[in-house]
Amino acid sequence: MRICFIIALFVFSAAVQASSSLRVGNQVLSIGDSAVRVTELLGKPSYKAHGHSSRSSSSRSSRSRRSRTTANATSKAASGEKWQYRRGDHITIVTMVDGKVSDIEDDRR
């Protein structure tokens, strides 16, 4: 039973990988790289999605400074763009915030 559970976890974790870097040929794309670098390595995305924050400014004004900083970071990530690429049997999603890579997801289909 325990081994089946471990195998199931391994299979699930191999299906979707979010990481701080992605190998593209003999180059590496990393969090913090520019949109220009993404385009150089992966080309034009097959799909772009624009995120929108659902938080209102009035709800953030009553929070402490630390909470506002966290809320602002969350809002920035939510308002970023998700660039989707089809690479062979992989779907790669690069999240862009302020023109920089903030997250990389690689899903094997």
Would you write up a description of this structure?
- The protein is of the alpha+beta class.
- It has a domain at 16-51 and 80-108: Beta-lactamase Inhibitory Protein, Chain:B, domain 1.
- It is built from four helices and seven strands; from the N terminus they run αβββαβααβββ.
- The protein has helices at residues 2-15, 35-42, 57-61, 65-78; strands at 16-19, 21-24, 27-30, 47-50, 81-87, 90-97, 100-108.
- A five-stranded antiparallel sheet has the order 1-7-6-5-4, sandwiched between helices.
- The longest helix has 14 residues, at 2-15.
- The two termini are 27 Å apart.
- Residues 53-74 have low confidence and may be disordered.
The first-to-last residue Cα distance is 27 Å
CATH topology of the domain at 16-51 and 80-108: Beta-lactamase Inhibitory Protein, Chain:B, domain 1
Averaged pLDDT: 74
The biggest sheet amounts to:
5 strands, antiparallel
Helix content: 25-40%
What class would the helix/strand composition place it in? alpha+beta
Instruction: Using the coordinates above, name the CATH class of the domain at 16-51 and 80-108.
Output: Alpha Beta
Q: Which spans have pLDDT < 50 for at least 5 consecutive residues?
A: 53-74
What is the count of helical runs? 4
Hey, roughly how much beta strand do the residues contain?
Answer: 35-45%
Rg over CA atoms? 17 Å
User: What's the CATH architecture name of the domain at 16-51 and 80-108?
Assistant: 2-Layer Sandwich
Total number of beta strands? 7
Order of helices and strands: HEEEHEHHEEE
* Bulk shape: elongated
Oligomeric category: single chain
